[in-house]
Amino acid sequence: MTGRRHAVAVIGGDGIGPEVVAEALKVVEAAGVALDTTTYELGAAHYLRTGEVLSDEVLEELRGFDAILLGAVGPPVGDTSVPPGLLERGLLLKLRFELDLYINLRPFAGAPGAIAEGAEFVVVRENTEGAYAGEGGFLRRGTQHEIATQGSVNTRMGVERCVRFAFELAERRPAHRLTLVHKTNVLTFAGDLWRRTVEEVAADHSGVAHDYQHVDAACIYLVERPRSYDVIVTDNLFGDILTDLAGAVCGGHGLSPSANLNPARTGPSLFEPVHGAAHDIAGQGVANPVAAIRSASLMLDFLGETDAAARIDKAVADLVGSGQLSRPPTGADRWSTSAIGEAIAERL
Ligand code: IPM
Ligand code: MN
Q1: Residue 244 CB less than 6 A away from ligand 1
Q2: Is the CB of 240 under 6 A from ligand 1?
Q3: 26 is catalytic
Q4: pLDDT tens across 268-291, in order?
Q5: Ligand 1: which residue has its CA nearest to atom 9?
Q6: Whether the CB of 235 sits within 6 Å of ligand 1
Q7: In the chain, what percentage of residues exceed pLDDT 90?
Q8: Is residue 92 within 6 Å of ligand 1 at its C-beta?
Q9: Does the annotation count 221 as an active-site position?
């Protein structure tokens, strides 16, 4: 433990978000790390109450924290009271862009019984560019001659800092392997920039073996031989899709964490489960908090609490790896959210 206190903004959000974040905070406390938390009410419910998605004042306040821990934001599926894309663009993506969270780090560990059982790999997803940049627009909207364009923005700087991060990560991992995933045969301009950048950066990292896969092929390999991966580096949209697939083959999204990092540390980084608000199971105490707990451990690691993070990871790996989560505790028909949090906290 560093003995430092860390100022963390907590955004529980909607649906199961607050429930899983509460367990994550419980586990951090059990690991002996002191956080000064400030809760922010943001998300679909907040928007419906106030008409506000993320005000400039709140954004400025958030810049002052050491980290942000987020549960999930979004309205129930099929709910039309929040315009589509409003929260995504106005809150989550805005935070990623404004705070320059240019790496979306998504580690995966295949759980017992999962297709990818025993797999251990990390996806480094570029997080501020590509199709998410918002480039494009309409011409003649609503007419017979309507045109919609949606570009993919790939800057040399943005691609290179992402690729460098991925190589540096591969260098620190035992397997020293990196796979670029793209679609260079069709996206010839963006693909060319990504490929050239990987080749150039590879020259500075001779200890890392690298290869390339088209994204469609990678979807097959993730299912057929998930244990062949170490570090995958890819663009924003491919990374979004691939990490949903990766979560599914590794045992489900209740287990998948993510770190939206500003490695330059010009502001706070944001940590959140890959999963959404899952309103269908909210309030029942049955959501799996493991993704949120692992996100909190990514946060601690990034804050320099590497020992506490490693202990949490080990406790999670022990519980998940033992296969116990598929066997409910005696007297219950399934694990509750808090029972999982407690079982992990107890192991610390
Ligand atoms: C994710 C989510 C977001 C994304 C949405 C909610 C904007 O799916 O974090 O993967 O597409 O990045
Ligand atoms: Mn996604």
Answers
A1: no
A2: yes
A3: no
A4: 999 999 999 999 999 999 999 999
A5: 274
A6: no
A7: 97
A8: yes
A9: no
Annotate the chain with three-state secondary structure: CCCCEEEEEEEEECCCHHHHHHHHHHHHHHCCCEEEEEECCCCHHHHHHHCCCCCHHHHHHHHCCCEEEEEECCCCCCCCCCCCCHHHHHHHHHHHHHCCCCEEEEEEECCCCCCCCCCEEEEEEECCCEHHHCCEEEECCCCCCCEEEECCECCHHHHHHHHHHHHHHHHHCCCCEEEEEECCCCCHHHHHHHHHHHHHHHCCCCCCEEEEEEHHHHHHHHHHCHHHCCEEEECHHHHHHHHHHHHHHCCCHHHCEEEEECCCCCCCEEEEECCCCCHHHCCCCCCCCHHHHHHHHHHHHHCCCHHHHHHHHHHHHHHHHCCHHHCCCCCCCCCCHHHHHHHHHHCC
Look at ligand 1, atom 5, and give the residue with the nearest C-alpha: 88
The rounded Å distance from CA 244 to ligand 2 centre is 6
- Local confidence band at 3 (pLDDT 50, 70, 90 cut-offs): confident
For residue 106, give the ligand nearest its CA. 1
Atom of ligand 1 nearest to the CA of 88: 7
- Residue 319's pLDDT band (cuts 50, 70, 90): very high
**17-70: per-residue pLDDT in tens?**
999 999 999 999 999 999 999 999 999 999 999 999 999 999 999 999 999 999
Q: Is the pTM of this model over 0.85?
A: yes
Please state the atom number of ligand 1 nearest to the C-alpha of residue 258: 9
| 241 Cα to the center of ligand 2, angstroms | 6
